């Protein structure tokens, strides 16, 4: 078995897209490797529960706004996206552990962990880029932040003995174009609940899902409420899943009988499989959207903006409707009509084609060579 030191900036959890991938990756990887885990968490979050004896939690790092500000101030010439989780005490701890234990691989999860790789040039590393920061800040940053991002991301992805992974060939192409670095892609994990969610009885409901403290998601939801909701047929119900909804938005939607805010739900997939569509009005952000992949795996069509579908194969375009304005959103929702039979056929096709790239297989079989 390989020995892996695994650093992630978030609590591994099924409650959010990126953290969910990390959670499921740890489950799968720990079946074939021994893992020492270091993760960050806020005080209001629960502890990570290890699935088996092959995962050992070495350290849980405290996370808070104050701590992130301190980390940022310690690196005034580095963009916060790379420095916000960089802790010198943790670095000293890792250096100490590296002298004691012989790791085969250092796994750095998210761009926020990449800076640690600079201090361990000799060990083999995987840099898991959940988003390509050059693209994310190209859409929302000023010229100075873009310049800093491009410079630092290239520097960190170029660390010796590193292999960069993303979630799509599109992101790989961006990394090659901007930095001249070859990256590899991996698929998301689809759990048993998603695979077993079967379309049987389609209802006049639509679903929005997200981690609502993320501006990308929240801005899209507010836009939907402002611009699209009033244009929908009155019999259409709206289900909203996801935690951390701001109080002012909660107040706004609780008085609308058509909207049901469900918060975090362990298994929303039977509802998703039997709704008219998932709605994804995204106007910023980067990377492949986990919720879109999960909806398609349920046999559910997705109506969204161009950004919602980035990095997803055109093989699945029959169930991905790209719209650009509120009227197109509303018209597509109001007239959506795909039979149960068609949905089941699509679900089967999606599940057969989607899983062909595995980061676990890469780690176990080749480690550093694709």
UniProtKB/TrEMBL annotation:
<keyword id="KW-0808">Transferase</keyword>
<dbReference type="GO" id="GO:0016757">
    <property type="term" value="F:glycosyltransferase activity"/>
</dbReference>
<protein>
    <submittedName>
        <fullName>Glycosyltransferase</fullName>
        <ecNumber>2.4.-.-</ecNumber>
    </submittedName>
</protein>
<keyword id="KW-0328">Glycosyltransferase</keyword>
<dbReference type="Pfam" id="PF13692">
    <property type="entry name" value="Glyco_trans_1_4"/>
</dbReference>
């Amino acid at each position: 078995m390989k020995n892996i030191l695994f650093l992630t900036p978030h609590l591994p959890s099924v409650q959010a897209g990126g953290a969910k991938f990390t959670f499921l990756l740890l489950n799968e990887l720990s079946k074939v490797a021994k893992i020492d885990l270091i993760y960050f968490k806020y005080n209001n979050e629960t502890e990570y529960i290890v699935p088996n004896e092959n995962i050992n939690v070495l350290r849980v790092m405290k996370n808070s706004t104050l701590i992130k500000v301190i980390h940022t101030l310690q690196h005034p010439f580095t963009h916060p996206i790379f420095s916000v989780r960089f802790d010198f005490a943790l670095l000293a701890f890792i250096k100490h552990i590296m002298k004691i234990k012989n790791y085969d691989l250092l796994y750095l999860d998210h761009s926020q962990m990449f800076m640690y790789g600079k201090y361990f040039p000799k060990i083999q590393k995987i840099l898991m880029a959940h988003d390509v920061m050059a693209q994310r800040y190209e859409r929302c940053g000023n010229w100075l932040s873009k310049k800093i991002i491009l410079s630092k991301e290239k520097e960190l992805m170029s660390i010796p003995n590193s292999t960069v992974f993303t979630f799509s060939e599109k992101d790989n192409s961006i990394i090659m174009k901007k930095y001249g670095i070859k990256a590899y892609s991996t698929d998301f994990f689809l759990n048993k609940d998603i695979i077993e969610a079967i379309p049987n009885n389609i209802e006049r409901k639509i679903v929005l899902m997200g981690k609502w403290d993320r501006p990308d998601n929240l801005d899209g939801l507010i836009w939907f409420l402002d611009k699209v909701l009033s244009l929908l047929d009155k019999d259409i119900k709206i289900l909203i899943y996801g935690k951390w909804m701001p109080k002012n938005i909660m107040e706004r939607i609780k008085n609308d009988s058509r909207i049901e805010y469900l918060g975090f739900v362990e298994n929303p997939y039977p509802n998703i499989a039997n709704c008219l569509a998932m709605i994804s009005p995204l106007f910023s952000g980067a990377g492949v959207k986990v919720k879109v992949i999960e909806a398609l795996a349920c046999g559910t069509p997705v109506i969204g903006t161009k950004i919602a579908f980035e990095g997803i194969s055109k093989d699945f375009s029959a169930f991905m409707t790209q719209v650009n304005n509120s009227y197109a959103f509303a018209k597509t929702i109001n007239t959506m009509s795909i039979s149960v039979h068609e949905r089941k056929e699509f679900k089967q096709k999606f599940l057969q084609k989607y899983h062909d790239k595995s980061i676990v297989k890469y780690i176990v079989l080749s480690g550093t060579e694709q």
